[in-house]
Write a structure and sequence with these properties.
Strand content: 5-15%
Strand order of the largest sheet: 1-2-8
Helix content: 40-55%
Number of strands: 10
Length: about 450
């Protein structure tokens, strides 16, 4: 079967529930040029090499068709000229923006910020599970893990972190959906999808501009207030940079975590022996190992599309990728590469040396990883402890349309009720090093 045909099957929604056999076929040719001119890379060694290659750019404006089209479209639409967010820039601009964001997010400048959010995160999870009390009269409760839990939890957390009113969800969610759709290669060419992304980002920027106007005179401890204050030795972000990066963090701060939690619960229900171990709670680091294996086995980001291109000719796996070519890195395929990991299609939280690609790698290693890890660990641990006899209503469940940000749209589960909340508010034993602490910043 032609590799381009395999790629089209991967993009086809009918294969969303299990794309992994298709990835195995794709890996037989590590680098393949598909119909739209994109070079698709699917093997671990080659993906890691390109994640660390300075000849790979994350600035989509380097593609000739995008740069010219974006300028013309912005003029025609009267769009505000928001600069690219930091994940769509290259060094040294990327490094400067990432440093300024990190100063207000976590280590080394704010090492206690995520720790300080742990009790609130557990409180949100506890409240959401407490609300799963509806019954059909037979004692059975049917819940949707996505709508009732996996979506509202990270949305609430990222709103708290940024300083965004939770009640504004209806305003920003449609724009967030538009940004996510722009990553889907089946919804149009690169230039067209970039136009839609620019429109949604401009609208999100306008939303944040209103928030920031109100924030100037009453700043708090949230991330937006920190960016406005511009503490530190470096020149602070410009107003446009704040708006662009705030929009990114709002979208990325919940969309992928929704998928990670949902994929995690689905995987645990398919592996009841691991669910039982998590429920017992006698392995202090099990939740951390479960999440790391999920990031390898069922990652929320399947591939990086529409945001990598070549600055020079690059020879890899016997193929020359010409300068100015779009490149798609299939992270989910790389993490299941049998040349990288033994028995890759087995879910095993006891796996050693789990150097997965679930958070990407290199200078663009996932900025939100220090938050996504504890969010998912708390969520899955509490679901395992508190849901009585959970079982899937449908397997496979219906999936979201996006092939790149992959996860169930609904995950219907029947339970026999909810156990009382754990009495100890700490998500880990006193004196125990939090399992989510991870010093790895890149791979």
């Amino acid at each position: 079967m032609a590799q381009t045909g395999i790629w089209q099957q991967i993009l086809d929604p009918s294969h969303r529930a299990d794309p992994y056999p298709l990835y195995a076929e794709l890996r037989k040719t590590p680098v393949v040029r598909v119909e739209d001119g994109t070079y698709v890379v699917s093997t671990y060694r080659e993906i890691v090499s390109l994640l660390h290659d300075p000849r790979i750019s994350s600035d989509v404006r380097n593609l000739p068709e995008v740069g010219a089209d974006a300028a013309a479209h912005a003029y025609e639409e009267g769009l505000p000229e928001l600069p690219p967010n930091f994940i769509r820039t290259d060094p040294p601009e990327h490094d400067r923006l990432r440093r300024l964001l990190t100063r207000n997010f976590g280590p080394p400048h704010r090492p206690g910020r995520i720790d300080s959010m742990m009790p609130a995160m557990l409180g949100i999870v506890t409240s959401l599970i407490d609300d799963l009390t509806g019954t059909d009269g037979s004692g059975t409760v049917r819940v949707d893990i996505v709508d009732d839990f996996a979506y509202p939890f990270p949305v609430t957390v990222i709103c708290e972190l940024l300083g965004v009113p939770r009640e504004d969800e209806s305003r920003f969610q449609a724009l967030s959906d538009a940004v996510v759709t722009s990553t889907d290669p089946t919804t149009g060419g690169i230039a067209e999808r970039q136009r839609r992304r620019a429109r949604a980002n401009a609208d999100l920027g306008q939303y944040f501009a209103e928030l920031l106007d109100a924030r100037h005179d009453r700043r708090g401890d949230d991330l937006l207030s920190g960016l406005l204050s511009g503490d530190g030795d470096e020149e602070p972000m410009s107003p446009g940079e704040i708006l662009s990066n705030a929009a990114l963090l709002l979208v990325a701060g919940h969309e992928t975590t929704v998928n990670l939690i949902t994929n995690g619960m689905l995987t645990l229900l398919r592996h009841p022996e691991v669910l039982d171990r998590l429920r017992r709670g006698d392995e202090p680091d099990l939740a951390a190992r479960v999440v790391e294996e999920l990031l390898r086995y069922e990652p929320p980001v399947q591939f990086l599309s529409n945001n990598r291109n070549t600055l020079d000719d690059i020879e890899i796996a016997g193929i020359t990728i010409p300068r100015g070519s779009p490149v798609t890195l299939v992270l989910a395929s790389g993490s299941r590469d049998p040349d990288f990991v033994p028995d890759p299609d087995r879910f095993d939280p006891d796996r050693e040396h789990n150097e997965h690609l679930g958070f990407g790698g290199g200078i663009h290693y996932c900025f939100g990883a220090p938050l996504a890890r504890p969010e998912t660990q708390i969520a899955l641990t509490e679901l395992a402890r508190r849901l009585k006899n959970p079982r899937l209503v449908a397997d496979p469940p219906p999936y979201r349309a996006s092939p790149s940000l992959r996860g169930p749209r609904h995950l219907l589960v029947e339970i026999d009720g909810v156990n009382p909340a754990h009495q100890d508010p700490a998500p880990h034993p006193p004196g125990h090093t939090p399992p989510y602490v991870d010093s790895r910043s890149s791979r």
